[in-house]
Amino acid sequence: MPAYGRDDLRCPGGSAAADDRNGAGASRGLPVKYLLDVNVLVAWGWSDHVAHEQTAKWIAATAKHRDSRLFTSPIPELGFVRVSVQRTAGRVTVRAAAGALAGMLHSLGAHHAFLPDDQSADRFPEWCFQASRTTDAHLLELAEAHGARLATLDERIPGAFLVPGLPE
User: Fold this and answer.
1) Which end of the chain lies in a sparser environment, N or C, as judged by fewer CB atoms within 10 Å?
2) pTM beyond cutoff 0.85
3) Which CATH number does the domain housing residue 138 bear?
4) Is pLDDT larger for residue 165 or for residue 62?
């Protein structure tokens, strides 16, 4: 279903078979919690993104499991809105991008929860020594503090869950 007149910004739905790569426990009936990174939200929300299909399938498969939870927090949500407006040079407004995100998250039903960011900015893992990695490190710490894994498309985040089935 197109959102706000944009054919490539979508409110996803549907289903797919579970892919258990990288230690996902959903196919084994284990409770699984993921904090969705900005890049996962962008890939899921934009049908013209190179990783859209794989990301949408993974989210649908994960959401099919009764005990799975997909979290968002302020940083990834704001990042989705920012990137969505920037990638269209303003043709998608801030409100339209926020509305599309709300629809995406609503489609997850009880599998989505908002995770307030309660972590201070003074804890960083050993691998974080560059300014460009601070947000990744913070989101990883936030996820771990709440018993979740950071789900991302970025292979450079040690300890994060790499969304499976991505194009090489």
Assistant:
1) C
2) no
3) 3.40.50.1010
4) 62
